[in-house]
Design brief:
Length: 191
């Protein structure tokens, strides 16, 4: 052990020269090799550092992709395996009297039934939503037509101020002004 620690010291040739006699030829050859051998560079190239672009973002992307991929794949695989092994596909059977099956009960696979029941709208539901939208739009159209007609009549008759005028003039004063205007038009003949 002592010899090995002495060999691995910082100056092995000096220690080996002092430990052994000079007549051992094999040991002399090892000592000569240790003396002449310097630092070896394989390949004979310069001692330069290659500057390369960083691959940090690529490795970070791969790590996050694998993490989130398996974060989703493992639970979904467990759910699918559980549904296929323990629940299994639905079978056809007679419908009891007075029972009306829902839309999601017609599907065979349990995952499909769950998705149709909770997330996918049925034909009846989408039809009723569309009808509600059409009725709402028809009511808005009628209100716009009524507002346009009211504005046109107010402009034509001039008996009430329109919604964009000031609210200081009341209806009775507007009617009195209209009567006065009609009287002036009838006496002078101006239009």
């Amino acid at each position: 052990m002592t010899v090995m620690s002495l060999i691995s010291a910082s100056r092995p040739t000096y220690i080996l020269n002092n430990l052994v006699r000079r007549d051992n030829s094999q040991l002399q050859q090892i000592i000569r090799t240790l003396r002449t051998s310097g630092t070896k560079f394989g390949g004979g190239h310069d001692r330069t550092l290659q500057i390369l672009p960083s691959r940090y973002q690529w490795h970070k992307f791969k790590d996050l992709f694998h993490f989130y991929f398996f974060l989703g794949v493992i639970p979904l695989t467990a759910v699918v395996v559980y549904a296929n092994i323990f629940i299994g596909p639905a079978t056809l059977c007679e419908i009891p009297e007075g029972y009306e099956p829902e839309d999601h009960e017609y599907f065979r696979h349990p995952i499909t039934r769950y998705l149709v029941k909770n997330y996918i709208t049925t034909m009846q539901e989408s039809y009723e939503r569309n009808m509600h939208y059409l009725v709402h739009m028809e009511q808005k159209r009628r209100m716009r037509l009524l507002a346009t007609r009211v504005e046109a009549l107010m402009r034509e008759r001039g008996d009430y101020p329109n919604y964009y005028t000031t609210r200081t003039i009341h209806g009775k004063y507007a009617r009195a002004m209209q009567i006065e205007r009609d009287y002036i038009q009838s006496t002078t003949g101006e239009e």
